[in-house]
């Protein structure tokens, strides 16, 4: 049985969703208004992280979606954003922070349950709300990388040392390094900074330059 935590500052939403999830044989281990409240309760009880956390995009406690998703992912849970999904920038931030997907609050309960079940299986949630929110954000959609920059990023982000990337592409090391610098600058310019090699891998995955992370990138050259 998969465990689920619900974090939403609207009690009626929490109660309705908790009842639906329990009917669908999920173990609802927490229902509350904030991420800090959930993490504190989990720590005090000594419980394992919930398999899935269903999180409202915007909470009333002043926290940001980036903070909330990052804390939950680092704690060991997969995150489903449960929102009206009408703020592309916030949805983009949730994706960049590691959220597995988004489901609209206007969706039928059966669709919400199916989304939670998909993420509980370890799969990403590729649905219409998510795609529309991201596609509608032009800053997310296009960092304007050149063909050569995409080639450099594809090889470098998946774990190859920059020297090897340069050798494979038949360019000087200094040229490959300059490409990485330009790539980072371009991502900063569209509001998607990538200061580390792990961040570059995430951007490459978001933009379809690499499909999966085959290994953890090590180091930054």
Automatic annotation (TrEMBL):
Q: Which residues form the Response regulatory domain?
A: 3-120
| Residues annotated with 4-aspartylphosphate modification | 56
SUPFAM superfamilies found in the cross-reference section: C-terminal effector domain of the bipartite response regulators, CheY-like
Q: Which domain of life is it from?
A: Bacteria
What the entry lists under SMART domains is as follows: HTH_LUXR, REC
Alphabetized InterPro entries for the sequence: CheY-like_superfamily, NreC/VraR/RcsB-like_REC, RNA_pol_sigma70_r4_t2, Sig_transdc_resp-reg_C-effctor, Sig_transdc_resp-reg_receiver, Tscrpt_reg_LuxR_C, WalR-like, WH-like_DNA-bd_sf
- A molecular function GO annotation: sigma factor activity
Q: Does the keyword DNA-binding apply?
A: yes
GO biological process terms held by the UniProt record = DNA-templated transcription initiation; phosphorelay signal transduction system
Q: Which UniProt keywords apply?
A: DNA-binding, Phosphoprotein, Sigma factor, Transcription, Transcription regulation
* Pfam hit, one: Sigma70_r4_2
* Cross-referenced PANTHER family: TWO-COMPONENT RESPONSE REGULATOR (PTHR43214)
* Protein family: Belongs to the sigma-70 factor family. ECF subfamily.
| This protein's name | Transcriptional regulatory protein LiaR
Native source species: Microbacterium azadirachtae
Which gene does this sequence derive from? Answer: liaR_1
């Amino acid at each position: 049985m998969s465990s689920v935590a619900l974090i939403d500052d609207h009690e009626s939403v929490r109660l309705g969703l908790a009842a639906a999830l329990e009917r669908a044989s999920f173990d609802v281990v927490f229902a509350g208004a904030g991420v800090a409240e959930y993490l504190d309760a989990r720590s005090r009880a000594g419980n394992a992280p919930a398999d899935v956390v269903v999180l409202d995009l915007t909470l009333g406690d002043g926290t940001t979606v980036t903070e909330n998703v990052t804390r939950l992912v680092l704690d060991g849970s997969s995150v489903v954003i449960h929102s009206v999904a009408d703020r592309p920038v916030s949805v983009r931030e949730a994706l960049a922070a590691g959220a597995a997907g988004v489901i609209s609050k206007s969706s039928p309960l059966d669709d919400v349950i199916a989304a939670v079940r998909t993420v509980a299986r370890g799969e990403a949630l590729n649905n219409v709300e998510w795609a529309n929110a991201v596609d509608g954000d032009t800053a997310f959609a296009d960092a304007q990388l050149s063909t050569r920059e995409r080639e450099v990023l594809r090889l470098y982000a998946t774990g190859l040392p920059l020297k090897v990337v340069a050798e494979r592409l038949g360019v000087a090391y200094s040229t490959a390094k300059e490409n990485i610098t330009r790539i980072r600058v371009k991502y900063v310019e569209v509001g998607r900074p990538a200061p580390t090699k792990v961040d570059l891998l995430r951007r490459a995955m978001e933009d379809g330059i690499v499909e999966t992370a085959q290994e953890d990138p090590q180091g930054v050259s």
